[in-house]
Structure formats: C-alpha cells, structure tokens
Design a protein that fits this description.
29% helix, Rossmann fold, 22% strand, alpha/beta, six-stranded parallel β-sheet
C-alpha cells in the first residue's frame, strides 16, 4: 500500500503529516511511503532525513494525490486536490466534517473514504491517535510566548540594583470548553502570584465565560 504525504499549502502552516521516524516504522511494517519534496522543511525535517528512512521523494503534489492509496495531511484538502485523488483512495486529515459539508460531498463524489482525525474520541484506547489536546496544549503554550513578545514588557516583578520593575497586569477570557495554559505554565511566566490571589473577578451568571485579572509577584 502506497502512502502519500503532500506539502501543506495553508497559509502559515508549518506542520507535516508524518515525521521521518514514523515513516521508517511504517516502511518496516511493509508500507511504501512517498513525500513531496520540502514537505517537512518547516517542521525542521529536511528531505535527507526522510530519504535515510527509505521514503521516496516526489516533485509535485499532483503525483502524490493521483498515485497514493492513502493520503495523509494535516489540513483538509481543497476541492481541486480531492478531484486529483484516485477513486477508492483513503484520506486522513483534520476535516471538521460537521462544519464542512461541501468537503464531505466532494469526497463522496470522488469515491474517497475519509478519516477525520479531529473526530477521534479522547479516550484511553485512542490515546496514541490524539490530535486535539496535544495541539491545543502547544497552541496554549505558544500563545503565552507570542503575547509576551507583543506586550513589550516583562511579566513578573524584578528587583535589580538599579531599581524595581513592577509586574504587569493581564486579563484573559476562559470558557469551559476552551483550554488555557496550565497553572504551572502561567506561574512560570508570572501570571500567578505565590498565594494565587486575584485582584478582581467578575463572573457572568451563566458561568460560561469569566474574566480574571492576575498580578505577578
């Protein structure tokens, strides 16, 4: 069975569907893997690492879609990419099928079987296939770093020989279904003071969203 990994074309997308190590494991299991040239570069996986694992490099995405029995992607393919897949092929990617009915219709018309990784339940048996909480954790951590970079100030209070730099005040929204950085991460970046006190808390009666203001110490 031939597995194909095309280059992700979505704006600002740096991920790749399979790493060289995973490709090597699949090849040892009897699969053939082909990769579009440069597909792993933004994830710091040069083509040489894939070649060393036995992956075949392909110049263009069209060849990946037309010849692969299974297409592995991060983001859902476009209608033109789906039309280039052969009948009976399998697609595995984020699809968000509930809000993308046209995507599902295109797959049906093309005769493609699709597996939406975002629909895999978050249960113990599916732990190794988790594609939601792992990415949410990374996004939450990255958002704190990006916020710190955009702020132009430091988070915690610092006492130096030249004087004291006061902690900044931050606010954020949190929902029950959303994810925020863990207490450990927030404390590391100065969001929480040692006693975990809040200077202000204003809860909506619904309890769905609440505004919290934290002070560093």
């Amino acid at each position: 069975m031939l597995l194909g990994i095309p280059l992700e074309t979505k704006d600002r997308e740096c991920r790749v569907a399979l790493t060289p190590d995973i490709c090597g494991q699949l090849i040892e299991a009897g699969f053939t893997v082909q990769l579009q040239k440069g597909a792993g570069l933004k994830s710091y996986y040069p083509d040489d690492q894939y070649i060393a694992k036995g992956v075949k490099l392909v110049n263009d995405a069209a060849s990946i879609y037309s010849s692969s029995d299974v297409v592995l992607k991060v983001n859902a393919p476009s209608p033109s990419e789906i039309s280039g897949m052969k009948k009976g092929a399998i697609l595995m990617s984020f699809m968000w099928a509930g809000t993308n009915p046209e995507l599902i219709e295109n797959c049906v018309k093309q005769g493609i079987s699709a597996f939406s990784v975002d629909a895999i339940p978050r249960i113990s048996r599916a732990q190794k296939m988790d594609a939601l909480s792992s990415q949410a954790n990374l996004a939450g951590y990255k958002s704190v770093i990006m916020g710190a970079n955009a702020l132009g100030k430091i988070f915690p209070m610092l006492m130096t020989a030249a004087g004291t730099i006061k902690a900044f005040q931050s606010s954020h929204l949190r929902s029950r279904c959303g994810r925020t950085p863990s207490n450990r991460n927030r404390k590391a970046f100065g969001f929480y003071c040692g006693s975990n006190r809040y200077s202000s808390r204003n809860k909506r009666t619904s309890g769905i969203i609440r505004r919290e203001i934290h002070h560093g110490e």
